[in-house]
């Protein structure tokens, strides 16, 4: 049975619908977001790739280049990220951002410092402050792009898992993160992170340091994906 060719009138309607959809997709300007990470390579490289997509879209919506998502790797740890913000940015500077995300890991830092960093974000009067932490490290979030992983283990084990999917995982190579985002499944990573968080919460565990294999990075990624998809 042969398919009838599309009528010219129907084809024009279809073109108009596609054009309308493209216009609708570009009507909402992404908010200004500042992402400040403790790491200087891993987290910044990953989020810079997502930021590039959003900033490119934003530039197309305006007359010129417009950076709405900024990423900064500081080399500071946990609560030191707040000191960095206070020393580098004025209150007026910070007021320009709709959201400010602090990205950091548990690593080997004392649990009280790790927990305090998360509680500080909640204590801020301005709800624009958010914490995207990983226990033990950001690599857990990367592992979730490829498979389930809910075992309490040392962060070195995350690297071993990543090596199965990436020829050789190297923190300082930005191409690695392009590869992970292209070949991994970011939506599945979000589902896995939520599933793990729910498991802890259902058991009454809500303190970050006690959630031995967890990451709230998915919250930041979910926010960014609103302006990429």
Describe this structure in words.
By secondary structure, the protein is an alpha/beta fold. The chain has one domain (30-225). Helices cover 51% and strands 11% of the residues. It has helices at residues 8-25, 42-61, 80-88, 91-95, 111-123, 139-143, 156-165, 174-183, 186-202, 217-225; strands spanning 33-37, 69-73, 99-105, 129-135, 214-215. A 5-stranded mixed beta sheet has the order 2-1-3-4-5, with helices on both faces.
Write the layout of secondary structure elements.
Blueprint lengths: L7 H18 L7 E5 L4 H20 L7 E5 L6 H9 L2 H5 L3 E7 L5 H13 L5 E7 L3 H5 L12 H10 L8 H10 L2 H17 L11 E2 L1 H9 L4
Parallel strand pairs: 1-2, 1-3, 3-4
Antiparallel strand pairs: 4-5
Helix pairs in contact: 2-8, 9-10
Q: Short description, anyone?
A:
This protein is an alpha/beta fold. The protein has 10 helices and 5 strands, in the order H-E-H-E-H-H-E-H-E-H-H-H-H-E-H.
Give the topology string: H per helix, E per strand.
HEHEHHEHEHHHHEH
As residue ranges, the low-confidence spans are: 19-26
Biggest sheet descriptor: 5 strands, mixed
- Domain module tally: 1
**Envelope shape:** globular
Give the rounded overall mean pLDDT.
87
The strand count comes to 5
Structural class by sheet pairing and helices: alpha/beta
Approximate strand percentage: 5-15%
Q: What's the gyration radius in Å?
A: 20 Å
The percent of residues in helical segments reads 40-55%
Q: How do the strands of the widest beta sheet line up side by side? A: 2-1-3-4-5
Distance between the termini: 37 Å
Q: How many individual helices?
A: 10
């Amino acid at each position: 049975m042969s398919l009838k060719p599309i009528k010219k009138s129907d084809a024009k309607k279809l073109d108009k619908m596609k054009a309308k959809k493209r216009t609708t997709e570009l009507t909402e300007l992404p908010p200004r977001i500042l992402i400040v990470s403790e790491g200087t390579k891993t987290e910044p490289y990953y989020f810079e790739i997502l930021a590039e997509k959003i900033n490119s879209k934003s530039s197309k919506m305006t007359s010129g280049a417009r950076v709405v998502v900024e990423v900064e790797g500081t080399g500071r740890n946990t609560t030191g990220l707040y000191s960095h913000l206070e020393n580098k940015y004025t209150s007026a500077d910070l007021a320009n951002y709709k959201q400010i995300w602090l990205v950091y890991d548990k690593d080997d830092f004392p649990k009280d410092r790790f927990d305090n960093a998360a509680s500080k974000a909640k204590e801020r009067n301005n709800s624009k402050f958010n914490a995207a932490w990983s226990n033990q490290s950001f690599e857990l979030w990367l592992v979730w792009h490829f498979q389930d992983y809910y075992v309490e283990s040392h962060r070195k084990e995350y690297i071993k898992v990543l090596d199965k999917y990436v020829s050789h995982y190297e923190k300082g190579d930005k191409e690695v993160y392009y590869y992970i985002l292209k070949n991994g499944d970011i939506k599945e990573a979000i589902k896995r992170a939520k599933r793990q968080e729910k498991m802890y919460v259902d058991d009454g565990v809500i303190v970050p340091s006690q959630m031995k294999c967890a990451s709230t990075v998915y919250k930041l990624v979910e926010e960014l994906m609103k302006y990429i998809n």
